[in-house]
Write a structure and sequence with these properties.
Blueprint: E1 12-16, H1 32-38, E2 47-51, H2 58-64, E3 71-74, E4 77-79, E5 87-92, H3 107-111, E6 122-130, H4 131-139, E7 142-148, H5 154-160, E8 167-174, H6 182-191, E9 194-199, E10 207-212
Parallel strand pairs: 1-2, 1-7, 2-3, 4-6, 7-8
Antiparallel strand pairs: 5-6, 8-10, 9-10
Length: about 210
């Protein structure tokens, strides 16, 4: 995030797929979004919106952000489109504990991961909400930074965000999922006035950063 310009932004920061923030030992107690937001002056932060579907992570996530009264935590999974149901199956592999990096409502995403088809997945029910409805109800039209890592749903959610309605200044999302759809996503974001800056939030270099100029 060295290309981030700390000017008079709207002060609203959103993370989809928050995990446990910077309290995960498997990630060396690091999380790019958390590190970045905590590096900012608290006076410039109006709201921090954190979305995490896995109930096993919520207690730690609350602990991570306990010193930030601006933080709001929502226990739900973000989906690309409206559905008739607001509940979905959510899957995780026990071997991926304790904080389940690859847990997802997309079962095939886990099967295509390092865990393959040999893991006996655990299934639970989680609340869901489509991306545009969530942004409208919980966030608002202006977002200074949106960070995304939603395990198998990054591409469809990116394609379904209403960029005409929601003005996102900086967008950082995991690029490992793009593969052959990289050009599709880049063209879609460029057509919505979001332009590639380089690597984004993830401390491992797994995110791309776009800016609305």
């Amino acid at each position: 995030m060295d290309k981030y310009v700390k000017n008079d932004g709207c002060g609203i920061f959103v993370q989809l797929g928050a995990g446990v923030g910077d309290l995960d030992p498997r990630s060396q107690f690091r999380d790019g979004f958390t590190e970045f937001v905590k590096s900012l002056s608290k006076e410039t932060i109006k709201k921090i919106i954190l979305v995490e579907p896995n109930p096993l992570n919520i207690i730690k996530l609350k602990e991570c952000w306990k010193d930030y009264p601006q933080a709001e935590i929502y226990e739900l999974a973000i989906t690309p489109n409206d559905t008739n149901e607001n509940i979905s199956n959510f899957y995780y592999c026990p071997d991926d504990g304790p904080h389940y990096h690859i847990a997802s409502i997309n079962q095939s995403h886990i099967h295509n991961s390092r865990y393959g088809h040999n893991c006996n997945l655990i299934k639970i029910s989680v609340k869901t909400q489509n991306i545009n409805s969530f942004l409208e109800e919980k966030v608002g039209n202006n977002i200074e930074l949106l960070g995304m890592d939603i395990e198998g749903l990054d591409i469809p959610v990116l394609l379904n965000i209403n960029f005409d309605k929601f003005k996102i200044k900086y967008l950082s999302f995991e690029h490992l999922c793009l593969k052959e759809k990289k050009d599709l996503i880049f063209n879609h974001l460029n057509n919505n006035n979001l332009h590639y800056l380089g690597y984004g939030l993830d401390h491992n270099g797994y995110d791309y950063l776009f800016v609305n100029k």
